[in-house]
Amino acid sequence: MANIQLKDVRKSFGAVNVIKGVDLEIRSGEFMVFVGPSGCGKSTLLRLVAGLEDITSGELLFDGEVVNGLTPSKRGIAMVFQSYALYPHMTVYDNMAFGLTLEKGSKQQIRERVTKAADLLQIGQYLDRLPKQLSGGQRQRVAIGRAIVRDPKVFLFDEPLSNLDAALRVATRIEIAKLHEDMNNVTMIYVTHDQVEAMTLADRICVLRDGVIEQVGTPMELYETPDSLFVAGFIGSPKMNFLSGDAAKAYNAHTLGVRGEHLNIVPEGGKWQGKVIHTENLGADSYVYLEMGMEEPVVVRLDGTNSYHTGDVVHISPMEDKLHRFDDKGKPIR
Amino acid sequence: MLWSYTKTTAFYALVLVIVVISVFPFYYAILTSFKSGTALFQVDYWPTSFSWDNYISVFSQGAFPRNLLNSVFVATTTVLLALFLAVTAAFALSRVRFRGRSLLLMTILGVSMFPQIAVLAGLFEVIRALGIYNTPWALIFSYTIFTLPFTVWVLTTFMRELPIEIEEAAIVDGATPWVIITRVFLPLMWPALVTTGLLAFIGAWNEFLFALTFTSSNLTRTVPVAIALLSGGSQYEIPWGIIMAASVIVTVPLVVLVLVFQRKIVSGLTAGGVKG
Q: Where is each ABC transporter domain found (chain A) (predicted)?
């Protein structure tokens, strides 16, 4: 249980400013996701919260107390690393018990807590194995288990799923979501560059770009009312279409944003028309890529399969109430 | 086809030459150590006679058993001391960011440029000043100095290769640097420790110049010096048989050590801890 506050937090490595003044409040028990493209500073921000990096300036508060100078273990955090970072020479049991033995808990107590966490993650039968005898998914569970055992106030995840294959990633994602429900008094911070993970897991998402926060909000707030062109383009899959020029001018905007799912292909008299350059059928839905003289092709998302062919010219119409208008600075016009 | 045969033949011929050059002298030493009397001066390539006389006399005359113990003590202590200092230094040099780190590393490497003879006089004065002349500590002190650059350098390189995440995970688990070194890094560093430790041991075990200079009495000498100073019944007699027996005796521990520890040099010990 911890409420985390960042007050004008900055971090520089030598002359390079990585985090350029972040103000953020993470509520106690919340699942906060830091998302952004590579190099935006999201991992650095997490490491600042963890205490693995020193904060250059600004304040970090846990429950109103400044923790800038505290070591990670004193802050009451636990962290799951991207590469698992298990101790290769220790069995799964020892890996999970390591932190507790350093705290000098009784053997009995340690065994109870490790067993409980192992049961929760269904790794009870692997306790005597070494990490190298486990699969990637199992290693990731051990890493999560090692964090759970310490009964942290704050749980930090640094891209925990990026080393897993696609199927396992979805399964583990669901488990992390369940874990959050079970441990509803633990604040969780999760770093990812995958907006799908961010959308599915987060209570609130913090979109970062070049070391500053672009927008903080619930997944639906970001999806429906993005505060900038960057957020609009980053959240949602397929990416939001951006129309400029005459198409945008007709709506009094510099750039017009419309999501693929908010475009309809109409037989005649559509707002715009374009030439099909590519189609993708995914079964449940399908994407049609249209060449409309913009920088990037316009994507239309259709339910079910489609029967358009490359070279077809089609008419499209947007859902008027789902349009996003942006001015020349990339800010929304509402 | 012909070329590949030639290559194979040339390869094995070279192997044979290397084996003969490196193994034959030792083989001949063993052979000689079992001979006695004038048989010593006959050239034989196969055992002709067999007697333990030389071995018995090596242990019964002079201070040879004492010299052997000195060697064991000096070499072992040197290895332990050097590894302790090197592991802690390597941790700092590989994992702690501080000003002048690379300069320090280069300096450490630079120290090993100086030949023994160049520092002999200076070191002699230091040892006299410390009051450890003619004790095993003089040798341990000087051997550690000469072993450390190599040991520190190898362990630093090895420690740099250890994934940083493992260390960070330990930090998050509440481990102090000392706990990280002893309980996380050391078990992962076995291969490097064994290799450098073994080389340090061999170096200390074989060293001659310092051992000759920093000791003066028969009771503090190490084996290499003792062997060189073995003398026969008269000024004109060189006790070849005894010298050979002593040489074989000092070689055996090294061979045994290498055989024992080659099993310990396990690669891929870090596998499984992190992805990759």
A: 4-235
Write down the mean pLDDT value for chain A. Answer: 90
pTM reported for the whole predicted model: 0.80
Question: Kind and range of the H or E element at A167?
Answer: helix A166-182
pLDDT confidence bin for A154, thresholds 50/70/90: very high
pLDDT at B231: 73
- B273 closest CB neighbour out of A78, A85, A146: A85
Q: Distance from A173 to chain B by nearest Cα, in Å?
A: 19
**Chain A: nearest CA to B273, how far in angstroms?**
4
Q: In A, which residues are within 8 Å of B271 by CB distance?
A: 88, 132
- What is the overall mean pLDDT for chain B? 86
Per-domain boundaries in chain B: 2-51, 61-262
Q: What domains sit in chain A, N to C, each tagged with a CATH number?
A: 4-232 (3.40.50.300), 239-333 (2.40.50.140)
Degrees, nearest 5: CA angle B55-B57-B58:
65
Q: How confident is the model at residue A214 (pLDDT cuts 50, 70, 90)?
A: very high
pLDDT digits (tens, 9 = 90+) for A259-307: 999 998 888 878 888 899 999 998 889 999 999 888 889 999 998 888 8
pLDDT at position B265, please? 56
Cα gap B123→A217, rounded to integer Å: 70
The arrangement of strands across the sheet holding A204-209 comes to A77-80, A154-158, A187-192, A31-35, A204-209, A212-217
- Cβ-Cβ contacts under 8 Å, B276 against chain A: 83
Q: What is the DSSP letter of B271?
A: B
CA angle A7, A11, A12 (to 5 degrees): 155
Whether A156 and A46 have beta carbons less than 8 Å apart is answered as: yes
CA distance B231 to B2: 56
Name chain A contacts of B163, Cβ cutoff 8 Å: 83, 85
Cβ partners under 8 Å of residue A11, min gap 6: A17, A18, A19, A41, A44, A45, A48, A53, A55, A56
Q: Are A235 and A281 in contact (CB under 8 A)?
A: no
Q: What interface predicted TM-score (ipTM) does this complex get?
A: 0.85
What's the CATH architecture for B61-262? Answer: Orthogonal Bundle (1.10)
Q: What is the pLDDT of residues B33-61, one digit of tens each?
A: 888 777 778 888 888 778 888 888 888 87
A231 touches chain B (CB under 8 A): no
Q: How far apart are CA B237 and CA A243, in angstroms?
A: 104
Residue A153 C-alpha, separation from nearest chain B C-alpha, in angstroms: 13
Are the CB atoms for B242 and B56 separated by under 8 Å?
A: no
